[in-house]
Amino acid sequence: MGEINAADKARYDFKKAMQEIVEYRGRGTELISVYVPETKLISDVMAYLREEQSQASNIKSKTTMKNVTGAIDSIMARLRTYKTAPPNGVVIFCGEVPRAGDQTRMVQYVVSPPDPVTAFLYRCDSEFFTEPLESMLLEKKYYGLIVIDRKEATIGMLSGSRISVLKHFDSLVPSKHHQGGQSSVRFERLIEIAAHEFYKKVADNATVVFLDSVTDLQGILVGGPGATKDFFIKEGYLHHELQKKVVSPLFDTGYTDESGLKELVDAAQGAIQDMQLTVEKEYVQRLFGEIRKPDGGLSAYGEEEVRTAAKMGAVDTLLISESIDKKRVTASCSNNHTHTLTVNDDEAPIQCPDCRQPLKVTGSQDLIDEFFEIADSFNTRLQLISGDSEEGDMLLKAFGGIAAILRYKVA
Ligand code: ZN
Questions:
Q1: The pTM is what?
Q2: Which of 89, 273, 351, 394 could disulfide-link to 37, CB 3.0 to 4.6 Å?
Q3: In which region does residue 49 sit, left (phi positive, over 0), alpha (psi from -120 to 50) or beta (all else)?
Q4: CA of 351 relative to ligand 1 center, distance in Å
Q5: How far is the CA of 99 from the centre of ligand 1 (A)?
Q6: pLDDT score for 180
Q7: How far apart are CA 3 and CA 10, in angstroms?
């Protein structure tokens, strides 16, 4: 897998596999889940599985016993291909799931989780055990939050819709109204020194809490009641890596405590949504701009047209809707006609288009995976488009969810 789409592809594969894995139910207690952390010796896992296998011989139902030992065999065969567990560990799901009639088929998933597996775990149940992976599907991306004035500041974070307070500070900066009889110039100067120290302290703490996870940091929202927030940002108190992520404009809030963080998030709602969808929106807008040109510009849309252009290396960026649930299957009939067809995820092709005989499926691949593979061979970027924006919705409805911005016009 080429560098260009690797992260997006891994995320897509994980999401897709999880969608399938959670749906399976076994006829009996016979679906096996094994979580292997990076630090666990494969030989220890093998020993554990052999022990489970000998226990399984006590299972009363012959069928369940056969299915459990078969699944353990299959998992051990898979684990033998590892010298050590990969970084983040590995999770294997294996078992017999029902199929039409009395039939079952064995499914096996080997999942490379996006976050580390923390503990070794073996489960045999009527469904696969997925809880430890589910939290990994959650968005890790977050926003930093700072509300500040001269008296107080609070640092927090927003991930998903959850706001958490990370640090709170009260400043010792005297109010300008309490000058009393002091020389006002000298007093002003003391106040400014105290304020400077306070801003530095807030900025240093922001560095401590945000800099380690700066790649997941989508932006820093800054708010407060007065001009202090503007001064704090303009004077560059924040670490330069954080300063680059400050979202402009800054936001007015009435408070600088926890409720100030809530006000800040409310005020920034529009900006946050825009940021999340901006990349996707920009691509789709570019596509529409091309399509609107009298000669169709550098655009292609529709599955066949896009596939042809992509296989010529003519595609700069593939735009594919995340919600197309389709697969690409190869199938042949008894007259040896072979066809490659696109069908809905829950369908199989029925009739040979040439002779109307039943088709037998010989190969099947997720449609988006097929496009990831083509994209990789031609250094083409594949941008998945969610259905969350008007643009994403339009891509799906008007163009079947598959379009491309071209490098050059395909005749
Ligand atoms: Zn045929």
A1: 0.61
A2: 89
A3: alpha
A4: 8
A5: 26
A6: 57
A7: 11
What's the gap in Å between 347 CA and the centre of ligand 1?
Answer: 19
CA of 352 to the centre of ligand 1 (A): 5
Ligand 1 center to 343 CA (angstroms): 17
Distance 356 CA to ligand 1 centre (A): 6
> Which mean pLDDT values do the consecutive 10-residue runs of the chain (411 residues) have?
71 86 93 96 96 92 94 96 92 93 90 88 96 76 93 91 89 70 77 93 96 88 96 96 94 96 92 75 90 92 96 95 91 93 83 91 92 92 83 89 94 69
Query: What spacing in Å lies between the alpha carbon of 362 and ligand 1's midpoint?
Result: 14
Tell me the sheet residues that pair with 160.
Answer: none
Ligand 1 centroid vs 307 CA: distance in angstroms?
A: 24
At residue 1, the pLDDT reads 46
For residue range 227-271, what is the model confidence (pLDDT) as tens digits?
Answer: 999 999 999 999 999 999 999 899 999 999 999 999 999 999 888
CA–CA gap between residue 358 and residue 363 (Å, rounded): 15
Distance (angstroms) between ligand 1 centre and the Cα of 340 equals 12
Please name which of 336, 330, 337, 342 lies closest in space to residue 353, comparing C-alpha atoms.
337
- Gap from CA of 334 to ligand 1 centroid (Å): 7
pLDDT in tens, 63-118: 999 999 999 999 999 999 999 999 889 999 999 999 877 888 999 999 988 888 88
Give 342 Cα–ligand 1 centroid separation in angstroms.
17
Task: Say how many Å lie between the CA of residue 46 and the centre of ligand 1.
Answer: 47
Q: Which domains does the chain have, with CATH numbers?
A: 3-137 (3.30.960.10), 142-177+184-272 (3.30.420.60), 279-406 (3.30.1330.30)
